[in-house]
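ugh ok so i messed up the first submission bc i forgot one of the chains. this is the corrected input, ALL of the components this time, i swear. 742 residues overall. if the numbers dont match what u have on ur side tell me asap before i send this to the collaborators (the ones from the other lab, u know who)
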Amino acid sequence: MRVGVIGGGQLARMMVPAAVELGIDIAVLGEGPDASARLAVTAIGAAGDADAVLAFARDVDVVTFDHEHVPQPVLAALVEAGVAVRPGPGALAHAQDKLVLRRRMDELGVPQPVWAEVADEAQLTAFLDANGGRAIVKTPRGGYDGKGVRVVTTGAEAADWLADGPLLAEEVVDFRRELAQQVARRPSGELVAWPLVETVQGGGVCREVIAPAPHSAGRIADLACDIAMTVAEALDVTGVLAVELFETVDARILVNELAMRPHNSGHWTIEGATTSQFEQHLRAVLDLPLGATGCRDPWSVMVNVLGGPEDGDLDSRVPGLLAEHPTAKLHLYGKAPRPGRKIGHVTVTGEDLDDLVFQARAASARLSGTA
Amino acid sequence: MRVGVIGGGQLARMMVPAAVELGIDIAVLGEGPDASARLAVTAIGAAGDADAVLAFARDVDVVTFDHEHVPQPVLAALVEAGVAVRPGPGALAHAQDKLVLRRRMDELGVPQPVWAEVADEAQLTAFLDANGGRAIVKTPRGGYDGKGVRVVTTGAEAADWLADGPLLAEEVVDFRRELAQQVARRPSGELVAWPLVETVQGGGVCREVIAPAPHSAGRIADLACDIAMTVAEALDVTGVLAVELFETVDARILVNELAMRPHNSGHWTIEGATTSQFEQHLRAVLDLPLGATGCRDPWSVMVNVLGGPEDGDLDSRVPGLLAEHPTAKLHLYGKAPRPGRKIGHVTVTGEDLDDLVFQARAASARLSGTA
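and heres the new structure output, hopefully the right one now
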């Protein structure tokens, strides 16, 4: 069994340990020799280079992804060549294009923010007038980690982006917190869900995840699980699906975005769940039976490590972290620190949530050079 | 930070996930391109080939081992060349030569079986006469997994081995069970112990491990921990040390053998302990602060997967195992199945020991083709 991963970022990197343990061969098409997943890189090429992608895919049993940025024509060429592509192009379109996503969620009756496709300033102004004078505008494609997202109060504020094509306008949701629901689905239909988690964002980037989401048992968790399972089946997702959600102040659950690959909101599963998202993704795309998804401890807390204000010698900060936090599990991505760049994460699990949050934040800050 | 591992077996293989997560570069000197640790193999060569080992060591910060079979002259050449070798040659000698081990344990006052060095049949006969007419004879070097070990009742039964040099003769210990105590030690002296475990052998090969060892809290666990810590410090072991022990029917603890590397008795730590033996070994040989060693669940049970009576298509047996045992964690070593060969292991953790033993054995048997 040989899995090929397009893209050599940290998500591909973290598939490597799972593949090694399961006895699965893994190959990665990396962006360069210094890709985060470099240990498993067998070919170098861009995700948009059809020739490179096709050549890479020739030696593997199934192709999956580190990111959503493989163009549809390249995906179509893979399918045309008889390659098993999981998730498939039809599913991936909903993670690549936010307008495609919004239309489909409406068709499925899945709750989401009020939205509109706006092609010019007049249409955006009309949307603003109808929605309290503020809106989030998003470029339909290519945005991530806060890029391609802007809050506007006038149509003119999006004029530059409108010059390149229609935008997605969304109401500014009055949310209490953000949540994420992960599920995994096999081509043969088996579908399992991890516990709902709470995600804490800052500057458009995921900062912390608490699993399970506090105070969410019952209706909220059921709603989130139903939504994610509905989406996974309707879109024929294979592999891991993360559904990012808003919990509104009036206790509704709205779909924010989708990711069809392992996702930052699921890094806690490496230590915190019986089956990690990385192992499960490999099992799912190979159509192997899925593993148990329960929590191994009452609480898991994951805090990202972002490059700090001064980049510098990350290695020199590791001993202090390890000495002060002997129960913290450190994950480093082999990426050069730059301010704000995700370069690793720390997970702690146990019974005392307050203490775990303290430990995980302190450990992460140690590495960012902010402690 | 770059660690070089001499030997590409499953122990090197299982260091790879730990290295990836910690952001440590790992390089392996493998026996061939199909080594179990092939993903991290950067050079091919025999552990006895000084030129190959020296060339390999040039590119790493510290050298450690998948096995004990690097000859002392090669180790000496590494030290001579200024390479950090962990554990060092002086410590490794005790894992390479059982006579060296026995002499040193006596010097340290560590309890062990009655033993003698026997150079000929007459000396072995004298040992038999003094010890109830039965003895275990062992070749001092090169034995493992039941090889190089024989039970004899007459001197003549070891004549073939005696032709090659002196042997170790040991009393046949009347033991209740076998135990193993693992510790990890850094060059700077930090020393930590995992809980004592029970090991179940069959045909000279480790079959099962239960962690912690049932009914061992208190005196037995304290004795075992004291012995392992004494040995680690006296021998200046760096990295992980496993001390295989007999618990006698009259409740004594005797040292059987040592391993100065990750060991089969510690595979349970991947899921069962806060810090796995593989992560800890890397931390220890890099002189990084060591991680917490407590159990994550009340019980962990590890069962080896041995090649079954019919070799054949291992891949075809994996789906059944995964489907029937969704909580079992499967580890495959990428080795071709041959009868009796260790090709993987399965670990389950939880609260109900009887059920865990049942699950782990059933899952393992599924893969061996014996279920």
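quick check: The longest strand of chain A covers residues 175-185. that seems consistent at least. Residues 107 and 195 of chain A are 26 Å apart (CA to CA).
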